[in-house]
Structure prediction request, 436 residues.
Amino acid sequence: MWHHRLSAPLATLLMAVMPLAALGADGDLSTAKQGWSVNPVPAMAYDSDFGLMAGGFLDINYYGGLYPRYKHRICLEALTYSKHASFFMLHYDSRYLIPGLRTSAKLYYDNNPLYCFYGFNGAVHDFDRSLHINRKDGIAYYCYDRKFMNGRFELEGSLTSHLDWTAKLSYWHYWIRELNWEGYDHSNTLMRKYRTLELIADDEKDGGNLFEIQAGLKYDTRDIESAPTRGIYADFIASYAPDLWNTGYDFVKLSARFRHYLSLGSERTVLAYSLAYQGTVAGNQPFWSLPYIMHFKPSDGLGGATTLRGILYNRLTGDDYMWTNIELRKRILDMNFLGRRIFGIVTPFFDAGTILQPFRFDEQTQKLYAADNVSAVSYDRYRSTMLKKAREIHMSCGIGAQLIIDYNFIPSVTIGIPFDKRDGDYGLYMTLDYIF
Prediction:
């Protein structure tokens, strides 16, 4: 399935360009069904974690007589946000480049000079809104400068009618700096505190390289890939990052996710839920690789538009995660417009997630205990309190609205509210596709 990053064009803009998007480069629909279709789409949207977004993407499809399926698809995407982040992606996808296999390749670059960092292990640190990107007082306590580049190549093949295998090679390069944005106090950040306490080591503080080898299985009985009304989609992925650069960091991770779609009486009402786990089962990873979640959409830690909606993105980072998303998808509109089938959906939801295994917990606890000068409390009691905080369950709820256009294009608006104000105030997202 084709997934864009976090944001999407406004619904009104989409409705204006969708009739054009069906046309080929020469403006002829029959040509598009047989040959190439070049579809530029401008994008304007909003994400409460990143701000206003402007940019666009270019979908280039070669149908070869298989419309609406394609033989080859290329996507170029460029987005920039008012909170200074930017994102660039080039993606290729085909089931026909190598007969019998699905081939996917992706190259992307992410630049965020105000990347949010709430420390290791979630609620170990309380969140203070007054310290978060406060332009008036020149404080961005929870920020540092992060850039990364990622390239990946993936093959997928079929074992049975519903069971596929997947294999992937990925390369990452991270550039890490302390906060370096004009107008903010560079010395007053949580990142500076972690570096001073050596919770972040010298050999990882500036970023580095990572190579991953992944293999997994995917089980799929969904009736419609992009907007299912019944069926199961489950995957299991094992990832190994060898120490090719002699840094002392190599590790093994496992990821498992189960998604179930149930029609309640008819296809107009669907109960959809997802259960997910990711954990580091062996080895030692650098802190900058910690937020990477190995599921089908880009994500940083738990929180934000793709995992725990309404909760600050990257709020929870640890060695082992578990989370769930539960939605009731109710169709309230069913119509044809300009020859296209369009559904309107409302989606109340509940999300919850937790850290099962904290990251560098004993080292973190010992150094924070000494630095925060809480000697009036015994260390054992302090550690017990910190462990309870690290393993808290973080919850949110809210509602979303989707337009399903020809089952393939799904602009969505979602608002989520966390149960605990330490996780933020609310999240508002304009995205493409369902969260799962």
